[in-house]
Design a protein that fits this description.
Elements: H1 12-38, H2 43-49, H3 53-56, H4 59-81, H5 86-109
Helix pairs in contact: 1-4, 4-5
């Protein structure tokens, strides 16, 4: 039976993976938020992602979607890194799902 994970867990690999996910989530929120607010893509992002001209014309759409997905990743990791009661963990999981669905809605509804 799988137990609850926490920062005090003796399995360093699982803890490292969770911390990597948290760092990735923070990075996605920061980069996506920056793109959505400044309405400009970082040069490295354009080069690595090979964005087309049509995609480059929608920074708010891309940035908001990336930021919401990053927030979903962060919220989903809270119960595994902090000691929270089971009902709170379930609510946080539901919030993470709503954030991902919000990212899908953002992608669908936001145009130029």
């Amino acid at each position: 039976m799988m137990g609850r994970m926490s920062v005090d867990d003796p399995d360093p690999v699982a803890l490292a993976l969770r911390l990597v996910l948290v760092a990735l989530g923070f990075g996605l929120v920061l980069i996506g938020g920056r793109v959505a607010v400044t309405r400009r893509f970082p040069v490295a992002w354009v080069r690595v992602a090979h964005l087309t001209a049509a995609q480059r014309s929608e920074p708010v759409r891309w940035g908001g979607t990336v930021a919401l997905i990053g927030a979903g990743v962060l919220v989903q990791q809270v119960p595994s890194l902090a000691s929270v009661p089971h009902p709170v963990g379930s609510v946080l999981f539901a919030v993470a799902l709503l954030l991902v669905l919000g990212a899908l809605g953002w992608w669908t509804l936001v145009r130029r």
